């Protein structure tokens, strides 16, 4: 057993333990179904869907359904919460709509992209190992649960709060972030479809203000969800505020920007034009192009 496999074996129970801890904290003052916390049942569903699809993925050694499964997990978990919660108020419906619209759009976009590409290079080695491949799908279940923590804690609460300024402010922040992500993805897709841009990097539109505007948009929209949720959270439920923090750390320190930057460096690191682009363009937050310190 190599080091990567050993880490997967050790990390698997830790990931599940984190899911249990989040479910316990965010279940406080929450709805109960059949004697079980609704929030916890949502967590079970998040992991269960990914483990179920993993069986097919392992048999075919394919990651084609990975991103689509992630999006469907978001939607399934939110629908479970909305259907079985004690009170479905306007705030819950707003949060549910935010998640479903975002997840449906992103999952379909990523699924079409991988269908055209044929494979996702992140999984080339991973999908040959049962433990490592299983770990990827398990982490996706945790990713869904942590990202949805604020929305789920709010939707499943047994003490809803009337809408106010937080709901309006959060909705506007979500709309801004969602718009940035959609526009950035469309600009990059259009750029890649042009044969003249083969093996070139995008540096126009939102991509001239940020090297990763799509990730900025995603972080921002989850901040909006947290703002809408904030007035409802009580006691241990405030642990749910880990949601936007988790998204930020995930995209800026773990699998988002570091992975994409590494690939870009391998492909264009020698190119003076790419070096100049990195020097004048913000890493994440959109800013007017200017001379910045090279990465």
Structure, explained:
By secondary structure, this protein is mostly helical. The model has no long low-confidence stretch (mean pLDDT 90). It is globular. The chain has one domain (3-280). Strand 1 and strand 2 form a beta hairpin. Helix 2 packs antiparallel against helix 5 (130-147) and helix 8 packs antiparallel against helix 9 (242-254). The longest helix is centred in the middle third of the chain and has 29 residues, at 165-193. It has helices spanning 3-26, 38-60, 66-84, 90-117, 130-147, 149-155, 165-193, 213-229, 242-254, 257-268, 272-280, and strands spanning 32-33, 36-37. It starts with a helix and ends in a 15-residue tail after the last helix.
Quick tags:
295 residues, mainly alpha, two-stranded antiparallel sheet, 67% helix
Helix-residue proportion: 55-70%
Q: Which strands sit side by side, in order, in the main sheet?
A: 1-2
Write the element-wise H/E pattern from the N-terminal end onward.
HEEHHHHHHHHHH
Number of helices: 11
Largest sheet: 2 strands, antiparallel
Shape: globular
Quote the average pLDDT: 90
Provide the number of structural domains: 1
- Integer-rounded radius of gyration: 20 Å
Distance separating the two termini: 36 Å
Poorly predicted segments: none
Strand content: under 5%
Count the strands? 2
- Structural class of the secondary structure composition? mainly alpha
